[in-house]
Specification:
Blueprint (H helix, E strand, L loop, with lengths): L1 E8 L8 E9 L2 E7 L10 E4 L4 E4 L1 E6 L8 H4 L6 H17 L2 E6 L5 H9 L6 E4 L3 E2 L31 H14 L4 E5 L19 H13 L3 E6 L2 H10 L3 E4 L7 H10 L2 E3 L2 H10 L2 H24 L19 H9 L3 H7 L2 H6 L17 E4 L16 E6 L2 E5 L4
Parallel strand pairs: 1-4, 1-5, 6-7, 7-8, 9-10, 10-11, 11-12, 12-13
Antiparallel strand pairs: 1-2, 2-3, 5-14, 14-15, 15-16
Helix pairs in contact: 4-5, 5-6, 8-9, 10-11
Length: 410
């Protein structure tokens, strides 16, 4: 048993700091949480004292791409390095991400289920993973990896990360089943274009039919899988929400239709704005990606504010894997810059994020019965969240009661 003695604890159950608090941790779970004056510490317990550091729940990214290292065709097709080398690179990213305070990641496309299983088995250190494998879309959508010249990859399909291309309601159902067979924890599909989609497929363009969306969502839910919907605006955004997806990813033009925000709030559909990725598209993307990101910036902020006003649950997700890794907390700062308080932004990466990924029963807060995922942070994260970036002020990380990173005194 461990006794985590906290001078200051933000446990995710509210927006306030609890002072002089103690958590008793046993077999990976929090078994007791209460004022230090009321919690008896067993004589044989290992005491972990936070000192002057603030204790937070382990952070959650609801939308990452841990296996992505660039948007250029050569990288997407796996031409830049041997697959074994790439696998080791992904393993390094997993360790780095964990050490920055992220104990859970939902991968939104590209990561095989084998990495999840390897982390669970303890073969490699990393956050617990939920994977979507491929991004489902019809021919011509963002799930189809075509070179600018129009050629497809000459290499055989990886059965661990199936192609997401499907056409028509029947193929959509079959594709969902294929993803689940290959180990998908969640189903991801694209209802619109995006910043990085090919020229001619704009953020409000809908390339998938309502019938295809309805079939995909229905099949995923029948198989017990939540559905992530890549949608920026226009009819594709509406069709996804009306079909009952579980989260809208990006949603940059949500503010244009208040009715959709009301429907999201009523249906408990989460909103992952992913501000981070648009920052990088605006700085380093293709010419049309830079244009699109600049054009939607103000709308994106307006959509977050409108969503909060409507009672939509907002979660933190970076989508920045194609540009950088190990700075998932950048999104927390982006949420604050867009109008959230630091406490609200941290909740978007803890309690609300756990609800979004369907793990609210064991993750997201530091309460009795939850997994003992916690981090020690220097400074005052409820005043300034920037210290979380790159894990700069994260001194200790505990995952399921095991200390996986500790540089206190180093």
């Amino acid at each position: 048993m461990k006794a985590v003695v906290c001078a200051e604890l933000f446990d995710g159950t509210g927006v306030e700091i609890k002072k002089d608090w103690t958590l008793l941790v046993d077999q990976g779970n929090v078994v007791t949480s209460g004022p230090s004056s009321e919690v008896g510490i067993p004589e044989d317990a290992e005491v972990v004292d936070s000192g002057l550091l603030t204790v937070l729940p382990g952070l959650i990214d609801c939308h990452d791409h841990l296996a992505s290292f660039g948007y250029e065709t050569a990288s997407r097709w796996g031409l830049t390095e041997q697959r074994t080398h790439r696998d080791m690179r992904i393993a390094s990213v997993l360790k780095q991400t964990l050490e920055t305070g992220y104990t859970t990641i939902r991968d939104a496309g590209g990561l095989a289920a084998g990495f999840r299983d390897a982390v669970d088995e303890g073969l490699v250190p990393g956050p617990r993973l939920l994977v979507s494998l491929g991004i489902i879309s019809p021919t011509g959508g963002i799930g189809e990896h075509i070179s600018p010249s129009g050629y497809g990859s000459p290499f055989p399909e990886d059965p661990g990360v199936p192609s997401g291309v499907a056409n028509g309601p029947h193929e959509m159902r079959a594709k969902v089943r294929e993803m689940v067979r290959s180990g998908a924890d969640v189903i991801k599909f694209a209802a619109t274009g995006g910043a990085s989609s090919r020229g001619g497929l704009e953020p409000k363009d809908m390339l998938i039919s309502e019938e295809e969306i309805d079939a995909l969502v229905d099949e995923a839910h029948k198989l017990g899988r939540k559905v992530m919907c890549h949608a920026l605006g226009g009819p594709g955004l509406r069709a996804g929400i009306e079909a009952g997806v579980d989260s809208i990813e990006h949603g940059t033009f949500l503010h244009e239709d208040p009715e959709l925000l009301r429907l999201m709030a009523q249906s408990n559909i989460f909103f992952a704005p992913t501000f981070s990725v648009y920052k990088y598209h605006a700085e380093r993307g293709t010419p049309h990606g830079r244009r699109r990101s600049a054009d939607l910036r103000d709308d994106h902020v307006s959509s977050l504010l409108a969503a909060m006003e409507a009672g939509v649950k907002v979660v933190s997700g970076t989508d920045a894997g194609g540009w950088l890794h190990g700075n998932n907390a950048e999104e927390i700062g982006c949420l604050v810059d867009a109008g959230m308080t630091p406490a609200q932004a941290i909740l978007a990466a803890t309690k609300t994020a756990a609800e979004c990924i369907g793990r609210e029963k064991d993750l997201g807060t530091l309460e009795a019965g939850k997994k003992a995922d916690l981090i020690f942070v220097d400074g005052s994260p409820l005043v300034d969240v920037t210290g979380l970036q790159h894990g700069r002020e994260v001194s200790l990380v505990m995952k399921e009661g095991v200390v996986v990173h500790d540089d206190r005194g180093n």
